[in-house]
Structure formats: C-alpha cells, structure tokens
Amino acid sequence: METSFALTGKGYVIIAADTTAARSIVKMKIDEDKIKALGPHLLMAYSGEPGDTVQFAEYVERNIRLYQIRNTYSLRPSAAASWVRRSLAESLRSRHPYSVNLLLGGYDTASHDPHLYWIDYLGTISEVPFAAHGYGSYFALSLLDRYHNPEASLEEGLETLKRCIDEVTKRLVVSPGKYKVKVVDKDGVREVEI
Fold first, then answer.
1. What number of other Cβ atoms are within 10 A of residue 61's Cβ?
2. Which of 75, 100, 144, 176 could form a Cys-Cys staple with 18, CB 3.0–4.6 A?
C-alpha cells in the first residue's frame, strides 16, 4: 500500500512518500523514511519489495557518493537518472532483479533547473513535471494534472501536494497515515512539514 508523489515548480522539486512499512496485511513500522538524499541536490523516493528497496537505494546512494569522491563533483540529475535506469535494466537481465519503483528529483546547479524522473522496476524512465507511484497514484495523478503549475511557488506546490495527500486519505481504503516530505532546490535538500 505504498504511495509516493513528486512535482516540480519554479526552481524546486517536492517529493513525498508515506512512512508505513507493511507486508501483506501487517503494518510493521510507521516511521520508515522512503526518501533517500543521494547528494547535495538530489533526492530519490523508492517503493516496492521491502528487501529490494532498501538494498537498491543504499547501492545507488553509495555509488553516487563514490563517483563524487573520485571526480570531486556530483552527478547532475539527468546523469544520475540514466545511471540508475541502467542499473535497474542490468539487474532485470540478471538472476536477481530488483523490484523497485523510483521517483528521482534534483536541482541542476549548472542550468538552474529542477528535474524529476519517473523510473519503474522494468528500467523505464521518463522526465516528467509531476509523478506518483503506488495505489495513491490512481487518485493523485488526476489532481496533479489539474492543479500542477510549473511556475508555482514552493507554497503553492506544497498546497497541491496537500490536496493529493488529502484525496488519498479520503478515498483509499487502506490509506497511509503519515507522509515525509522533502524539497530540493538551489539551497540543497531539506525536509518540510505539511
């Protein structure tokens, strides 16, 4: 019953993910952080099979950090998204594929633009202005389509995200209780309250 949302605005990307860790009908944890900071201007929300998600997220985090150490600069969002997609595609063709869906958002400090990438477990990638994964996406995508504004301020973007969360809470039978929301912009990554 995992749900994650993301949207871009004027100079920022907002990513939100529920904090519930569940297996089948059992809720095991309600404070799981499913958004990983991959760099000073890069975030990744992950959902899927519990073991795969954590292992793949840590693998991506460590390799992107290794690249930064070796080359003394961070990967730009488009390069990081391409590398993540390739890693998923290679694992799909191995004996141990990862069952992970991702939302990768970042702020490109060179071009001063926000970027958001939707990546699924098959290694499909698409740069999008807004995205969602999980059961909540059935309700959120129509709201994001209607209310998303690429020139919106951060407050307006958070209000649009709040609409999505409220709709999922109201309409989804097994709705997640809490969400963690993070923003990446020119100042870096930070967590915000809704």
1. 16
2. 176
